[in-house]
Specification:
Elements: H1 4-14, H2 21-34, H3 42-58, H4 61-86, H5 92-102, H6 105-114, H7 125-129, H8 135-162, H9 168-185, H10 189-212, H11 216-233, H12 238-251, H13 255-260, H14 272-303, H15 307-311
Helix pairs in contact: 3-8, 4-5, 4-6, 4-8, 4-12, 5-11, 6-11, 8-12, 9-12, 10-11, 10-14, 12-14
């Protein structure tokens, strides 16, 4: 009935979304008649996330950690690009827009090249609600991936500072890196929490759109705008901040950079304790709410709640 190539395509397109071989074949024939090959429907994405969450929950700790390191490196590289592209632009609105246009590359590398990002993995709650993973497996994934993301980000921060890369543009990149870090370390807990919610709502919408696409071009185009939007809006992403703030803190250990940043606003707030208490902890909590509740839970309620009972 089908060629080998068609069978492979059918499995890739429908295997996670369908509940039976009959449904796989039926959906393929219907889609073929409609000419609809270019994306999954929102309900199909919801069903696919159940299988994806199950796989993520069953992945070994060592593999999760290594994949987490890779994603931390990818997001940190995007943060480097953000700072580098915007540091010489005097108009703050234009500077943020240019940086926002660069930053989505981090999530493109994460999702297309393959790695594990804590903020995107908050969508694992969909599999939890469907009974395809457990709370312990979910927490294992979150904790291990978070640790890997942190290490990957710190490695990039150390590399950038110690390589002398911050000397670009006569030290303007160093000053910009410290300014960004100081501003982020000066947030109050409640504001950082709310900015974290807004951020991961958009990040998880970007991940959702990525899973809807069936080719690389569609994935890149689909995720680009929500990520650009969260950066432009000034929302807070915990993994990105694992680079942004430590890079500024590490830069301050260089006497030349420290001397040049004496007059930076809120420079006194740039400390390791403020990094954790004023930013990383509240932003992480906000990211969990934005991803797991505002996206994962909402779409589960819309598309999957009661589906199993109806099928029985």
């Amino acid at each position: 009935m089908f060629t080998a190539e068609q069978k492979n395509w059918i499995c890739d397109r429908y295997l996670l979304a369908a509940t039976s071989k009959k449904e796989i074949i039926y959906n393929f024939v219907i889609d073929k008649k409609r000419g609809r090959y270019f994306m999954y429907s929102p309900k199909e994405v919801s069903k696919n996330l159940v299988g994806i969450g199950r796989i993520k929950g069953n992945t070994s700790i060592d593999r999760l950690f290594l994949l987490g390191i890779m994603s931390g490196i990818f997001i940190a590289c995007a943060a480097v690009g953000f700072n580098t592209a915007s540091c010489m632009i005097e108009n703050p609105g234009v500077a943020k827009l240019v940086g926002a246009m660069i930053f989505p590359v981090g999530l493109v590398m994460t999702l297309v090249a393959g790695s594990e990002l804590f903020t995107g993995n908050t969508l694992m709650v969909v599999a939890l609600y469907e009974g395809e993973t457990t709370i312990l497996k979910l927490l294992k994934n979150w904790i291990v991936v978070y640790a890997g993301n942190f290490l990957g980000s710190i490695l990039v921060a150390l590399l950038i500072v110690n390589s002398g890369q911050l000397n670009l543009f006569s030290g303007a990149l160093a000053l910009s890196t410290i300014k960004v870090a100081a501003a982020k370390s000066s947030l109050v807990f409640g504001k950082a929490f709310l900015l974290g919610i807004g951020c991961n709502f958009l990040v998880c919408i970007a991940v959702w759109i990525n899973f809807a696409a069936t080719d690389v071009a569609g994935k890149v185009i689909g995720l680009y705008m929500p990520i650009m939007l969260f950066v432009l809006a000034g929302f807070e992403h915990c993994v990105a901040n694992m680079y942004f703030i430590p890079a500024g803190l590490i830069a301050l250990t260089n006497p030349d950079y420290a001397a040049a940043s004496v007059d930076v606003k809120n420079i006194a707030n740039l400390t390791w304790s403020n990094f954790f208490m004023n930013n990383l902890i509240p932003v992480t909590l906000g990211n969990i709410v934005g991803g797991s509740i505002m996206v994962g839970t909402m779409y589960w309620l819309i598309y999957l709640r009661g589906e199993k009972k109806a099928e029985q």
